[in-house]
Amino acid sequence: xxxxxxxxxxxxxxxxxxxxxxxxxxxxxxxxxxxxxxxxxxxxxxxxxxxxxxxxxxxxxxxxxxxxxxxxxxxxxxxxxxxxxxxxxxxxxxxxxxxxxxxxxxxxxxxxxxxxxxxxxxxxxxxxxxxxxxxxxxxxxxxxxxxxxxxxxxxxxxxxxxxxxxxxxxxxxxxxxxxxxxxxxxxxxxxxxxxxxxxxxxxxxxxxxxxxxxxxxxxxxxxxxxxxxxxxxxxxxxxxxxxxxxxxxxxxxxxxxxxxxxxxxxxxxxxxxxxxxxxxxxxxxxxxxxxxx
Length: 293
Fold this sequence. Notes:
The protein is an alpha/beta fold. Helices cover 39% and strands 14% of the residues. The strands form two sheets. An eight-stranded parallel sheet has the order 8-7-6-5-4-3-10-9. It has a two-stranded antiparallel ribbon with strand order 1-2.
């Protein structure tokens, strides 16, 4: 079992239970909730809602990674993300409508592929970097994270959000994802990141077809031998919509719940979700089935 983490004084013991990463997209164009939380006051209220609902960590992103998403400038990403991180860390106890003791101390992940955003976010109070490119887009990312001394999530991805759905041909889906992640772990360690500060993400929905996403969910146990805790993000994704004939991402919560059960059975340690309250209950039951000693 990978070594436990401590984030903001809170122990994360892998295998003990499933941890929840609440999604906070401060973008105008994310596939499910774009434009809902890109104003600072709305972002803070949503962060508070996620914390109250049982999120163990918030994942704040200022660059949409939906298929066909356009890349925003560095300054635009900084302007979206950093004020939210800073505001959460400096909430005053007099904030009447925010659960400040809960929210102010919740760990924060920043969803970015840029080293400069990572550095600024950690300086503002973030605790974890979540890089959907597996730290392949920015060669400065791994040495920057090593210098900052924070954990990193390395995800499998091909191409960019604009091109990834044209890059779905694999000779051996699980084998190629395993090899990619193994190489990225090796690169991270070579850059000075401690092995026990690395988390992997198989990248469900990124450069994978509907059928490949299902195959990947079934094959999650194969990735456990990489020796890292594993994050899985299926929340509201299009392959669930395909199964349910449901075009509205916000109506896919119970389909998401089924995939979360499969992920927990497959060994996921962290689930990245929009609907924290509902999936919190799902985790409690699934953990009792698959993780009870």
